[in-house]
Amino acid sequence: MARKQERSLLTEVELEFMTVVWEIGSGTVRDILAELNKAQTRAYTSVATVLKIMEQKGFLTSERHDRSLVYRPAVPKEDYQRTTLKDLSSKLFDGAPAALVARLVDDEEVTDDMLESMRALLNERLGDNGR
């Protein structure tokens, strides 16, 4: 039996695979391959290998159904988002979430509507719905 590696962050390819698994909830290699192939053609064996690695890292679980393995997320998307943002904040913004937000709102591609949505979220979090 393969030993479980310590969970880290997903690589770009693993994140693409994980996004598919989060979207479909669970699936066999063929199910996941079909979704991935909508964007880019991949080989069955390559997909199977990456899924097995992700399982070893603790991001997926698998269960045998008939002759196929069915993969499911072992990590909820929200938990992974939280972990990734903490890592990003720590590495690029000296652990200061305000610096991350400041950089985000300074981005020229952030529209006024997006800023209003962010304001509404902050007001809700702070309990300042009337402002």
Describe the structure.
The longest helix has 16 residues, at 77-92. This protein is elongated. The chain has 6 helices and 2 strands. The chain is mainly alpha-helical and 131 residues long. Helix 2 (29-36) crosses helix 3 (44-56). Helices cover 57% and strands 9% of the residues. It has helices spanning 12-24, 29-36, 44-56, 77-92, 97-106, 112-126, and strands at residues 60-65, 68-73.
Shape: elongated
Q: In what range is the share of β-strand residues?
A: 5-15%
Q: Could you name the ranges where pLDDT drops below 50 across 5 or more consecutive residues? A: none
Order of SSEs:
HHHEEHHH
Q: Major sheet: order of its strands?
A: 1-2
**Computed Rg:** 19 Å
Number of strands: 2
Give a brief description.
Belongs to the BlaI transcriptional regulatory family. With 131 residues, the chain is mainly alpha-helical. The chain is 57% helix and 9% strand.
